[in-house]
Design a protein that fits this description.
This protein has 55 residues and is an all-alpha fold. Helices cover 42% and strands 0% of the residues.
Amino acid sequence: MPQLNPTPWFLTMLASWITYALIIQPKILAFITPNPPSNKTTVTPSTTPWTWPWT
């Protein structure tokens, strides 16, 4: 079963993970969001209970 032989694919997997860890990941982590979340207080709406006609 040749698909169980890791020799041809191990170096490809290793190179892709090294590329991800050393090149792509720092660029993604350095990204700053253009609209940072603000510390607004949440406003709870005032609600009135529903009056059911059959009660």
